[in-house]
């Protein structure tokens, strides 16, 4: 029984399905069939029913294996099988796990209206916008950026899942502690000249520069990111 029987019961789903796309071909391997059946059907198609289709100029091939995780030996076996047709170039092996890993989940920003009081923690997977102040003892944790549309006097931790490009922005900076990724700063290190230049009407932001916490005016963010990129 095993994989063999499972595939026999689903003959409408062949071990290998070949589809054309704009950039080449996709070989879809049925993940309920045994690998031996996959190779046998692949060879049948390459040397029989699809022989004319697969001859001609170079064609890029993507191998999709569904939930099956192909071993290095299995991938090599497929490469050798396709090598019998010099025009077929394997571009990529894809599994469901690979596709999920490449898919970036985007979380909408969390808008928090009000004051974050001492002992209170506001957390979110993504960006956080605080419409109010963060008091001493209050904490804000975000995997993305943090924007405080008021005074930041408490703790703010941006990029808490490892995002080193995250920022912490506030209208007034008086934090007890800033954290970006795993870098911690008690307070931004500003010279007296910088303090004079920072106007109370201009929003400021903290970011990582060469692994160290730095603070600048919000309207400089674009130019700073452009230099980094």
UniProtKB/TrEMBL annotation:
<feature type="domain" description="Septum site-determining protein MinC N-terminal">
    <location>
        <begin position="16"/>
        <end position="93"/>
    </location>
</feature>
<dbReference type="InterPro" id="IPR036145">
    <property type="entry name" value="MinC_C_sf"/>
</dbReference>
<keyword id="KW-0717">Septation</keyword>
<dbReference type="Pfam" id="PF03775">
    <property type="entry name" value="MinC_C"/>
</dbReference>
<dbReference type="InterPro" id="IPR013033">
    <property type="entry name" value="MinC"/>
</dbReference>
<keyword id="KW-0132">Cell division</keyword>
<dbReference type="InterPro" id="IPR005526">
    <property type="entry name" value="Septum_form_inhib_MinC_C"/>
</dbReference>
<feature type="domain" description="Septum formation inhibitor MinC C-terminal">
    <location>
        <begin position="112"/>
        <end position="213"/>
    </location>
</feature>
<dbReference type="InterPro" id="IPR016098">
    <property type="entry name" value="CAP/MinC_C"/>
</dbReference>
<comment type="similarity">
    <text>Belongs to the MinC family.</text>
</comment>
<protein>
    <recommendedName>
        <fullName>Probable septum site-determining protein MinC</fullName>
    </recommendedName>
</protein>
<dbReference type="GO" id="GO:1901891">
    <property type="term" value="P:regulation of cell septum assembly"/>
</dbReference>
<dbReference type="GO" id="GO:0000902">
    <property type="term" value="P:cell morphogenesis"/>
</dbReference>
<dbReference type="Pfam" id="PF22642">
    <property type="entry name" value="MinC_N_1"/>
</dbReference>
<dbReference type="GO" id="GO:0000917">
    <property type="term" value="P:division septum assembly"/>
</dbReference>
<comment type="function">
    <text>Cell division inhibitor that blocks the formation of polar Z ring septums. Rapidly oscillates between the poles of the cell to destabilize FtsZ filaments that have formed before they mature into polar Z rings. Prevents FtsZ polymerization.</text>
</comment>
<comment type="subunit">
    <text>Interacts with MinD and FtsZ.</text>
</comment>
<dbReference type="InterPro" id="IPR055219">
    <property type="entry name" value="MinC_N_1"/>
</dbReference>
<keyword id="KW-0131">Cell cycle</keyword>
